[in-house]
């Protein structure tokens, strides 16, 4: 399942080929959106904003498109004359003179006036995006201490998009490990230093994954592992998907348990209660 860093990289990929360039052709695969195609042709994509797994595409005519990848949605970019041969269902096609950006298989898509796009029900429910440049450690700390989240177990809180949009399963395990806190603890059970560490790593781990294409291990360790010939999947995480393998810090076997219906990994030594 893609998480915040993957969605932001998808947005970057689309922006790289169509941003600020007139759209020669616009296609919609959903009947209710087809009337907007002509309104958008000749316009430009001004930018793409992410809120967790939702993506907001802003156009130059003061319209914005909300899209959510859900389970199967995926953006594909290519040269205009090299469209992919696929059985996936086209939902959105944005074509410039030279390139195309196509959204396949997603079904939660709508067009809004740009001024009111943030009234979308999903966007009103979710918290700040972890990769938004305006989000600071102080803001994350404030949310950890807030009445809404202070007495929630971290195992559940770090999957709740109302807390911070863009967090997900692998990020949950990696952030809690980096902060050295046990998944069953609540923010109310952490001291000030632990809370500040958690706020710091919440942003740092997400940013690292975004910048490196999915790695959450720190750079020095990554270089050591890669020099030994360890592949991407064997290198990228500190604890996630490493059940019974030695902790990269203390060599204690990594534990796995189902929290909130999804697998979570931690080190009983580094994250002792």
TrEMBL record:
The keyword Zinc-finger applies. Residues 238-272 form the FPG-type domain. Signal peptide: none annotated. Its EC number is 4.2.99.18. It comes from the Bacteria. SUPFAM superfamilies: Glucocorticoid receptor-like (DNA-binding domain), N-terminal domain of MutM-like DNA repair proteins, S13-like H2TH domain. The keyword Membrane does not apply. One of its GO terms (molecular function) is endonuclease activity. InterPro entries: EcNei-like_N (IPR044091), FPG_cat (IPR012319), FPG_N (IPR035937), H2TH_FPG (IPR015886), Ribosomal_uS13-like_H2TH (IPR010979), Znf_DNA_glyclase/AP_lyase (IPR000214). NCBIfam families: PRK10445.1. Belongs to the FPG family. This is DNA-(apurinic or apyrimidinic site) lyase. The lineage of its organism: Bacteria, Pseudomonadati, Pseudomonadota, Gammaproteobacteria, Alteromonadales.
């Amino acid at each position: 399942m893609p998480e915040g860093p993957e969605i932001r990289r998808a947005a970057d990929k689309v922006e790289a080929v169509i941003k600020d360039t007139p759209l020669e052709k616009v296609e919609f695969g959903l009947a209710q959106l087809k009337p907007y195609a002509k309104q958008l042709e000749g316009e430009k994509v001004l930018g793409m904003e992410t809120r967790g797994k939702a993506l907001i595409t802003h156009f130059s005519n003061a319209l914005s498109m909300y899209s959510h990848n859900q389970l199967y949605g995926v953006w594909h970019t290519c040269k205009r004359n090299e469209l992919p041969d696929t059985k996936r269902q086209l939902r959105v096609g944005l074509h410039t003179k030279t390139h195309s950006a196509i959204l396949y298989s997603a079904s939660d898509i709508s067009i809004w006036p740009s001024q009111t796009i943030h009234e979308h029900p999903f966007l009103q429910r979710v918290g700040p995006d972890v990769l938004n440049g305006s989000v600071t450690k102080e803001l994350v700390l404030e949310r950890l201490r807030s009445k809404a989240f202070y007495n929630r177990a971290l195992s559940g809180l770090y999957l709740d998009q109302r807390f911070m949009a863009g967090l997900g399963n692998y990020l949950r395990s990696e952030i809690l490990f980096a902060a050295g806190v046990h998944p069953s603890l609540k923010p109310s059970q952490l001291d000030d230093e632990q809370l500040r560490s958690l706020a710091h790593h919440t942003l740092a781990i997400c940013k690292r994954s975004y910048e490196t294409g999915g790695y959450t291990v720190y750079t020095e360790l990554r270089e050591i592992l890669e020099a030994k010939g360890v592949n991407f999947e064997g290198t990228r995480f500190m604890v996630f998907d490493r059940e019974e393998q030695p902790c990269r810090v203390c060599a204690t076997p990594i534990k796995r348990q189902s929290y909130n219906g999804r697998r979570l990994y931690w080190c009983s030594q580094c994250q002792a209660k």
